[in-house]
Automatic annotation (TrEMBL):
Reactions listed under catalytic activity: uridine + phosphate = alpha-D-ribose 1-phosphate + uracil; thymidine + phosphate = 2-deoxy-alpha-D-ribose 1-phosphate + thymine; 2'-deoxyuridine + phosphate = 2-deoxy-alpha-D-ribose 1-phosphate + uracil
Residues in Pyrimidine nucleoside phosphorylase C-terminal domain copies: 338-411
Short name of any one Pfam family annotated for the protein: Glycos_transf_3
Organism, scientific name: Streptococcus suivaginalis
Record's protein name: Pyrimidine-nucleoside phosphorylase
């Protein structure tokens, strides 16, 4: 085979065979297929797409390109969860211990944030001492003993995806369904869970800007999971505004603790309880929403989160400390009405400029900075009321405040919101 012939074949809208896809992925991992040819193939896929069979073959070729985790030593049905990314997305921090508090093992490998999207690992690393690099043996032992672990992905897991994602990121080929689906599902399949919940975010703060594309992506990933014997459900969730109140690593840890103590915003708590109910159902544990919510109120979920933090070297005293910044600036409303929009992308980028996110992978994070919203979409405001507080280690200029305010949309009529838009199983 020749790589150039396969690029031309896909460029012309033809299907690649199973053998051709495997040959390309093997060659890319061993270096015989160079970056410039793989980027040409990615662009051909971007414009020509892939059939369901091609996506399945690509996914499994990537799974087999590195280590595959065997979780069979952990008793019970192991469940995992993945989000396609968003702003203020601290869901895993609450959802994983909440599910584990019912005796369902959660063995999860998470990722870092890039650009306007936050990463679960970055949030956890804002806790002093928390180790995200755990070897496979210790990972399995921790889940056996505590029922939960959230760690970083091994360098040897899905090698092809690690290489291909970095390439897609710099060649404008990230937001294409076949490559997103194969990237997500190769990691989830290789990580070894028996059941998978996919949180597919929709809106201007997500990769999928409209519900039609999100539905196609979700269905593609559900089909991939089921094809290899993994119980898989996808939930389409709203990412038009940030999730919850906080954006920023330490700030999101503190909001997660509020919710785990049963004190968080009712809408976010209810949303996470709905996701937990689905994950528990995947493990054949049927619970009502009231029973799930009780584990937030009675401290069972919080206890499980603390157990995970301690098991991974985290300092419990540091876990509960407040943020440490040199500047806290309130953003005040200038008119009366209802919040009608808080564009997730714009506020994610604003927080990134404060140091809460990375423009490129090598950027250093400031774990303390970010934004806390006191008002969300659908809530009333009056002049002089605080809409949000900015936490920064640099002066917040009047120009920055003006840019912040212009993205807060206030209307006379109330807008209703809904976190879960659709469930695909």
């Amino acid at each position: 085979m020749r790589t150039v012939d396969l690029i031309q074949k896909k460029r012309d809208g033809l299907e690649l065979s199973t053998e051709e896809i495997q040959w390309l992925i093997d060659g890319y991992v061993d270096g015989s297929v160079p970056d410039y040819q793989m980027s040409a193939l990615a662009m051909a896929i971007y414009f020509r797409g892939m059939s369901t069979r091609e996506i399945s073959d690509l996914t499994m070729a990537m799974v087999h390109s590195g280590d595959e985790i065997d979780l069979s030593a952990i008793p019970g049905i192991k469940v995992d969860k993945h989000s396609t990314g968003g702003v203020g997305d601290k869901v895993t921090l609450i959802l994983a211990p909440l599910v584990a508090s019912f005796g369902v093992p959660v063995a999860k490998m998470s990722g870092r944030g890039l650009g306007h999207t936050g990463g679960t690992l970055d949030k956890l690393e804002s806790i002093k001492g928390y180790k995200i690099e755990v070897n496979q043996e210790d990972f399995i032992k921790q889940v056996q003993e505590t029922g939960i672990a959230v760690i970083g992905q091994s360098d040897n897991l899905v090698k092809a995806d690690k290489l291909l994602y970095a390439l897609r990121d710099v060649t404008a080929t990230v937001d294409i369904i076949p490559l997103i689906a194969s990237s997500v599902m190769s990691k989830k399949i290789a990580a070894g869970a028996d059941a998978i919940l996919l949180d597919v975010t929709v809106g201007e703060g997500a990769f999928m800007k409209n519900i039609e594309d999100a539905r196609i992506l979700a269905q593609t990933m559900v089909d991939l999971g089921k094809a290899v014997g993994r119980k898989t459900v996808a939930v389409l969730t709203d990412m038009s505004q940030p999730v919850g109140r906080a954006i920023g690593n330490r700030l999101e840890i503190l909001e997660a603790l509020e919710i785990l103590q049963g004190k968080g915003r009712e809408d976010v708590s209810e949303f996470i309880c709905e996701l937990a109910q689905i994950m528990l159902s995947l493990a054949n544990v049927e619970k009502s929403l009231e029973e799930v919510h009780q584990h937030l109120v009675n401290g069972a979920a919080l206890k499980k989160f603390e157990e995970m933090v301690v098991a991974q070297g985290g300092d419990l005293d540091d876990l509960y400390r407040s943020v440490q910044v040199s500047h806290q600036v309130d953003v005040l409303a200038e008119e009366e009405g209802y919040i009608s929009a808080l564009p997730a992308l714009e506020f994610g980028l604003f927080a990134m400029k404060l140091g809460a996110g990375r423009a490129v992978k090598t950027d250093e994070l400031d774990y303390e900075t970010g934004i806390v919203f006191h008002k969300k979409v659908g809530e009333a405001v009056s002049p002089g009321q605080a809409i949000a507080t900015i936490y920064a280690n640099e002066n917040i200029s009047e120009n920055m405040l003006t840019n912040f305010r212009k993205n807060v949309k206030i209307e006379a009529e109330r807008v209703n919101t809904k976190e879960i838009l659709e469930i695909i199983s």
